[in-house]
Amino acid sequence: MTIATTFKFDHLEAMSNHLGLFEHAHLTTPRLEHGYCTDDNARLLVVTSREPDTGAARRLSRLALDFVLAAVVGDGRCRNRMDSGGSWLDSPRTDDSWGRSVWALGVAATHGPIPAGSWPWPEPRLSYANAALAEALIAAGAALGDLAVLERGLAMLGWLLDLETERGHISVSGVSGRGPDDFGPQFDQQPIEVAAMADACWRAHEHTGEQRWLRGISAAASWFNGANDVGAVMRDDVSGGCFDGLHVDGVNLNQGAESTLALISTMQRARSLTLSAGSLVP
């Protein structure tokens, strides 16, 4: 007997938006009023991680990974239900959704495009304005029509964005750099790193239209407004300047040219996408 083993991700893409995979459907239409659950997004991460990291599987795996990571809180417990507006509806706990999250993250770590313990960056350490390297490859690949170079730049940027995202906010490498054995959060964090991330995500979105790059830009803009490891606002709305660095215990109150230009550049990227897309995703 011949068993049909073909499948496609079309319906799962239709059942998803920028936040995650909806739980219920009326026939083939997602029922927005029922929102999302971690259980299904964890399952999505499992099945997409088993596939080559291209096309719909790539897009959905990033979506599912972001959802699962957002569901897990600092002590390791996991939330399960989110409404259609992106608000969590339950308290963290260690029930089925927690178990499925552990399972999904384990599968992703084992079968994902970047094996556990690897260092895919072309330099031995992250150093200064790191995302600019990925942006350069993306721009060059697009200009030359070289898909391999473009995909390499996107993969580098995706890896860097995942590495430098901590519990939903940007947590860039510290001024002393970051190597394979270093872990965040690191300090002092420089505004130039965040601006470089916003620029690279803007470039990536220009060439792919993928929602994850919008989220990167939104997170970069939010970093200046206090969505960072310390919860400190990095902008001075009286002077129009930006503080020079984020410390573990606050901010460097100096307002140099580089930092202020980084603030303005990031807000320009956020503004351009707000004008073209209506709003940035949270």
If you had to describe this structure to a student in words, what would you say it looks like?
With 282 residues, the protein is mostly helical. The chain is globular, with a radius of gyration of 19 Å. It has 2 domains: 8-113, no CATH class; 118-282, Glycosyltransferase (Alpha/alpha barrel). It has 9 helices and 10 strands.
Topology:
Elements: H1 10-14, E1 25-26, E2 29-30, E3 36-37, H2 38-49, H3 55-71, E4 81-82, H4 96-111, H5 131-144, H6 147-163, E5 165-166, E6 169-170, H7 191-208, H8 211-224, E7 235-236, E8 241-242, E9 245-247, E10 250-252, H9 257-277
Helix pairs in contact: 2-3, 2-4, 5-6, 5-7, 7-8, 7-9, 8-9
- Looking at the structure, the CATH topology of the largest domain is Glycosyltransferase
Helix coverage percent = 40-55%
CATH architecture annotation name of the largest domain: Alpha/alpha barrel
**Rg on CA atoms, Å:** 19 Å
- The total tally of domains equals 2
Number of helices: 9
> How are strands sequenced across the largest beta sheet?
1-2
Number of strands: 10
What is the residue-mean pLDDT, rounded to a whole number?
A: 89
Give a nutshell description of this structure.
It is built from nine helices and ten strands.
Output the keywords.
globular; single chain; 10 strands; two-stranded antiparallel sheet; 9 helices; 48% helix; two-stranded antiparallel ribbon; mainly alpha; 282 residues; 2 domains; Glycosyltransferase
